[in-house]
Amino acid sequence: MKRVQSLLGVIILLALFYTLRDDLGKVEGFLPHFFLIAVISYSILNLLLAFRIQYLLQKMGIAANFGCVLVAHLGGMIAGDVTPGRSGYLSTAKFLSRCGSNVSTAMAAILAPQGVEFIVKGIGAMLAIAYFHSGGAIAGIAIIAVGAIILCLLWSRRFDRLTGFVESMPLGKHVLSMREDGMKMRGYVMQILAVSLIGWLLVGIQWYFVGLSLGMKLRFLEYLLLQPLLTALMFVPITPAGLGIMESASVVVLYMLGVEPSIAAVFAVLTRISGVIADLPGVYAFLVSSDHT
C-alpha cells in the first residue's frame, strides 16, 4: 500500500511538470543564497520544536539531553517526509526512548503540541481564506476539528468513563498512561502555543525566502497566510506527506495571485526540498544504536 501511495504522489508530481513542460524553460535567475536562508529558517524551527519536546519531558520529570531529543525529533521529521499523512513523525516517540523517556510520555509530549498545531494551522487557513476572498472555509474548520479532537482525547475528563474499556484493549494501558501524561501538560498550553506561533512565523520566513530565490513578488503576509492553508495538504493520507497534492494546489492558488504556473510549481517543490534538507540530519537517528545516542 505504501508503495502505491508513493507511486501515486510521484505520478501526480510528474503529471504536473509534464503539463507545465513548455513553461519551465522560462524559469531563470535562481538565487541560491535566498534558498539557503530558507533552509536555515526551517532548521531553526527544528531546534525550537526539539526544545519544546525537551521542555515538556522535563516537566514530566524526565531530564532528557537536548542533543538526544534533537536527533529523535529530526528522525521523526525525516520519517514524516516520506510517509502518508506525515504519520512517520510518531516514530519520534520510539527514538525518545533512547533519551530516558518511556513511549507513553513521549507520545503525550508529541501529540499535545500537535493538537495545538492543528488548531493554529486551521485558524491560519481560515484567515488566508478570508484575506484572499476565496471559498472553502470548511477546510479550515476541518483542520481545527482535528486539533480539537486530539486535545479532547488527551485533556478532557469526559473520557474517564471509557477507562475500563480502553484498559481491556491491546496496548490499552499504554494509551491510558499516555493520556495521564497528556493531562499533566494542560498547564503548559501557553508555552506550547507560543512555540506554535513562533514556528508559524519561521515557516513563513522559509516560504518568503524560497519565493525570493525565484524572484516572486508576493508580500511576507501572503506567504505567512498561504503556508497553513497549503501545508495542511501534507496531512492528506493519500501520498507521502501530500506529495504532488500540495504542489498541485500551490500552483492553482499562486496562479490566482498572479504567479506564473511554472514558477509556482518550482516554488512548491523547492519549499518541500528546503524542509527535507533541514530534516536530513534525522537519518542519523536510524543509523545510530541506542547506546550511542
From TrEMBL:
<feature type="transmembrane region" description="Helical">
    <location>
        <begin position="62"/>
        <end position="80"/>
    </location>
</feature>
<feature type="transmembrane region" description="Helical">
    <location>
        <begin position="31"/>
        <end position="50"/>
    </location>
</feature>
<protein>
    <submittedName>
        <fullName>Lysylphosphatidylglycerol synthetase/UPF0104</fullName>
    </submittedName>
</protein>
<dbReference type="Pfam" id="PF03706">
    <property type="entry name" value="LPG_synthase_TM"/>
</dbReference>
<feature type="transmembrane region" description="Helical">
    <location>
        <begin position="229"/>
        <end position="257"/>
    </location>
</feature>
<keyword id="KW-1003">Cell membrane</keyword>
<keyword id="KW-0812">Transmembrane</keyword>
<dbReference type="InterPro" id="IPR022791">
    <property type="entry name" value="L-PG_synthase/AglD"/>
</dbReference>
<feature type="transmembrane region" description="Helical">
    <location>
        <begin position="188"/>
        <end position="209"/>
    </location>
</feature>
<feature type="transmembrane region" description="Helical">
    <location>
        <begin position="130"/>
        <end position="155"/>
    </location>
</feature>
<keyword id="KW-0472">Membrane</keyword>
<keyword id="KW-1133">Transmembrane helix</keyword>
<comment type="similarity">
    <text>Belongs to the UPF0104 family.</text>
</comment>
<dbReference type="GO" id="GO:0005886">
    <property type="term" value="C:plasma membrane"/>
</dbReference>
